[in-house]
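Checklist before submission:
- one chain only
- standard amino acids only
- sequence pasted in full

Submission:
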Amino acid sequence: MNVEPQTDGKAIASLVCGIASVTILFILAGIPAIVLGHISRSEIRRSAGRLKGEGMALAGLIMGYISLAAIPLILIIAAIAIPSFLRARQLAHETAAVATLRTINAAEEEYRSGANGKFGKLSDLIEKNLLDSDIARAESGYYFTVTVGAAGIEYTATAEPAANAQGRYSFYVTSDGEVRYAIEPELAPAGAAGQPVR
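Returned file contents:
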């Protein structure tokens, strides 16, 4: 009596995992596709014709190996892209910090015109709606502080990175309105400590 060969379930599972491995799940489905493909092909050979599906198991194997072969390529791309992305993010934060210091300087000038020639602290500028209250938080990757001299006729606003990955340099602006790199050499580009930002 002839019995119709059955398709091996592991061959189907290997094919499904193989398809998933080259589309969305990569290694998570690639390894099961390879394991199930090898097991299925071995069982089909030993079944003496009772099982079929060797083509599906082979397709699952091939796709599983392709997904594993893509891993080094993905790692190489990540090794190139991640540092570039981090550097671009640092540069964006630094540019935003310099722009914010210029905004603080403009707010100080406006505050001084209505405060008998005296500058205000960061809280004073926020209270008079000259600055957004979000400036006190490090959402832009920098912390901003304003120190006003005893007589109130001078101020220094500083921008310091919230973390090393957020920005490379620190900046400050005084009542002269010129945004400069930090005086400390390790917080400024080589030879630019205390120099104006261009």
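Reviewer check: The chain has two domains: 6-79, 87-187.
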